[in-house]
Amino acid sequence: MKLKDMPDEELFTRGHTACAGCGGAIAVRNLMKILGKNTVVQNPACCLLVFGGTYPWVAWKVPYQDVAFENTAACATGMKRALKTRGKDDTVVLGIAGDGGTADIGIQAISGAAERNEDILYVMYDNEAYMNTGIQRSGSTPFGAWTTTTPVGKVRSGKANFKKDMPSIMMAHNIPYVATTTVAHIQDFINKFEKAKKIKGFRYIQVFAPCPTGWRHDTAKTIEIAKLAVDTGMFTLYECENGKITINRKPKMTPVADYLKLQGRFRHLTEADIQKIQDWVKKKWEADEKFAQCRSQ
Amino acid sequence: MPMKVVTGNYAAAYGSMRARARFVAAYPITPQTFIVEHISEFVSNGEMDCEYVEVESEHSALSACVAASGTGVRSFTATSSQGLVLMHEILPTATGMRLPIVMAVVNRAIAAPINIWVEHNDIMPERDSGWIQVFCDNNQEVQDMILQSFRIAEDKRVALPMIVNLDAFILSHTVEPVDLMEQEAADKFLPKFTSPSHIIDPDDPKGLGVFTPPEFVQESRWQVDKAMRDATKVIAEVNAAFVKQFGRDHGGMIDPYMVDDADVVLVTMGTVSSTAHEVVDDLRAEGKKVGLVKLRFWRPYPRDELRKIAEKAKAVGVYDRAVSFGVGGPSFIEFRNAAYGLGVPTVNFIAGLGGRDVSSADIRFMYERLLETAKTGKVKRDVVWIATRGVEQ
User: Fold this and answer.
1) Number of domains into which chain B is organized
2) Helix (H, G, I), strand (E, B) or coil at B361
3) Residue of A48, A54, A71, A132 to mutate, testing the B interface (most B Cβ within 10 Å of its Cβ)
4) Residue A139 Cα, gap to closest chain B Cα (Å)
5) In the listed set B187, B213, B246, which residue is the last one of a domain according to the structure?
6) Pick from A63, A67, A78: CB nearest B202
7) Residue B192 is assigned to a structural domain of this protein
8) Are the beta carbons of B212 and A55 separated by less than 8 Å?
9) Whole-model pTM?
10) Cβ contact (<8 Å) for B207 and A64?
11) Is residue B390 part of a domain?
């Protein structure tokens, strides 16, 4: 499907209460157009839980269930098996959670469901912190970033550790499909969701979704920042189908400073910090490329 | 079907099969493990038509059940002790979504120190979770209550999840003769599953567990409270229907024994009830007017039934296999609330923690203390720790 062929019908409608420029909301709106009406959703505690609907106003036009925080993949498992029992095996079960709900507190449930190769589509919308509770550090927060639990202080500033490589963890489960995409690379986004929709078994898509509120950037720059994340190599676009890896876009290796300077969460970084991130990107890209070459068949 | 000699765990697993649970997600934990194993055997042998998921934790087990039941399929799970503690977060979710999940809980001590034997301190934190809860004292009752539980939980007037409690090892691993029910009989008793609640259906979009502001939540709490109260009536109806069809009466909310003319009454839960039953016979033979109440349902609490009995007694004892530290046994606390204003002297007996045996002699001691209390009208000690080193009884 091309962008111009995207259906007009909204299954995640206007009226939701996301912040202006929310990458998560863009992701959900678009992916629902691709997945279509025959979809049911598991959505745990995260921003989406709140902005997607506060009773009695709900933006979802498909059934959805909110159970807890750490169990999205387990709940999606229950939903899928129940639908199968009821003869509705063609319904897509979407589990969609944030990075905290997936890579931190939810990693046990997602690992279990992936190992069992449950027939579900799991989306982690990655805004790189616990945004719903007010911008706390997660395992997916990048090195150096300010959050309310990695504040800029006199003796330490920003996150001390690098971002957890969640897609690699998912690839290690040998599931049929793992992909990364962003809200800015819409054709790439469409291709991957269309593909994932058709595959049986566990599918994992990580969507890079900037958060103007938490990243302290201009609400008009969500798309630009997501594009820069890929161009600089901060975030690699690739997919892994049955073990075969394809890099979808090579980074231009634009200096990371261009990406960092647009965001208030990196404002305090020193030249040395920026160099450290630049070195990390180089190493990361080289590793991604080598890994993809090894698994290109 | 002829009687078969089976464990409590087998009785629980068999009951879930006969109830035609179509979704089971469970995780092994001593002493519940055999329930999980038996169900997997039933499924692997094609005897049980069920989506069985070997989840990676108890938390995921109940989460998956909440989703499956919420998607309109009869769901069952089983756990014990630390597993139940891990599930704790999800229990009220099942209640709030009004999902008729049935769960067997093999009651076991919670750490620390780590201990795998019987104690009721694992289930007590779930008192306020909104799950209906029954305690069994033999394996026949375990099988029969699994079947009854689905009918109670799925009744539209109830629509609440339900727990069937059985004592670790004393029931879970001990074989007893059980009349294992035929499928036709079970089908006659338990109708085909239709959810009493809203479900996830791609043809009829609804949200379950939607973020809800203060304007609406209180009413939903009231609805659960009312359902729990109304369950008392449904429990009696279901028991009557069961007695009529199967000829076995485990009692409704409570199972009283020799209480009508009793001077003193002991209220028990779980397998200690059987031992107490024997002791009552012995004491009656000695001319002592003692009675016993097996407390079957813990939620809803049989307040009215117990109050009626307490009104006539000169002293009431409450046995607890659990303790609310610094206060006393949870069952005792509930009873005193139920008996408020009656002025009947009440004594709490705490015994059998961490799987320690509760002997006939221990129970005889409890009755003797109660008879003494009835005579003097004075409570010597309101919370009595039985056979505890360094502690005066």
Assistant:
1) 2
2) helix
3) A71
4) 21
5) B246
6) A63
7) yes
8) yes
9) 0.97
10) yes
11) no
Q: For residue B192, give every residue at least 6 positions away whose Cβ sits within 8 Å of its Cβ, in sequence order, or none.
A: none
Q: Is B325 on the interface with A (CB under 8 A)?
A: no
Q: Look at residue B141 and tell me if it is in a domain.
A: yes
Residue in B54, B57, B73 nearest the CB of A108: B57
* Residue B381 clears pLDDT 90, i.e. is over it: yes
- Dmax over CA atoms of chain A, in Å, equals 61
Please report the DSSP string for A73-114 in residue order. HHHHHHHHHHHHHTT-TTSEEEEEEEHIIIIITTHHHHHHHH
Contact B94, B208 (CB under 8 A): no
Q: Looking at the partner chain, which of B63, B207, B216 has a beta carbon nearest the beta carbon of A75?
A: B63
Within this chain, do residues B223 and B206 fall inside the same structural domain, yes or no?
Answer: yes
Residues B137 and B276 occupy one common structural domain: no
Render each residue's pLDDT in chain A as its tens digit; 297 residues.
Answer: 999 999 999 999 999 999 999 999 999 999 999 999 999 999 999 999 999 999 999 999 999 999 999 999 999 999 999 999 999 999 999 999 999 999 999 999 999 999 999 999 999 999 999 999 999 999 999 999 999 999 999 999 999 999 999 999 999 999 999 999 999 999 999 999 999 999 999 999 999 999 999 999 999 999 999 999 999 999 999 999 999 999 999 999 999 999 999 999 999 999 999 999 999 999 999 999 999 999 987
Whether A71 sits inside 8 A of B200 (CB atoms) is no
**CATH code, B17:** 3.40.50.970
Tokens of A133: 């509770």
My answer on whether B258 and B348 are in the same domain is yes
Domains of chain A with CATH codes: 9-294 (3.40.50.970)
**Could you tell me the CA-to-CA distances from A235 to A69, A252, B315 in Å, in that order?**
25, 12, 73
Are residues B157 and B119 part of one domain? Answer: yes
By residue range, what is the domain housing residue B360? 254-385
Give the integer Cα–Cα distance in Å for B255 and B56.
39
Minimal Cβ distance to B209: which of A38, A62, A67: A67
Which pLDDT band, with edges at 50, 70 and 90, does B2 fall under? Answer: confident
Q: Could you tell me which of A271, B337, B257 has the C-alpha nearest to residue B329? A: B337
CA of B88 vs chain A CAs: smallest distance (Å): 12
Show which of B218, B246, B274 is a domain's final residue: B246
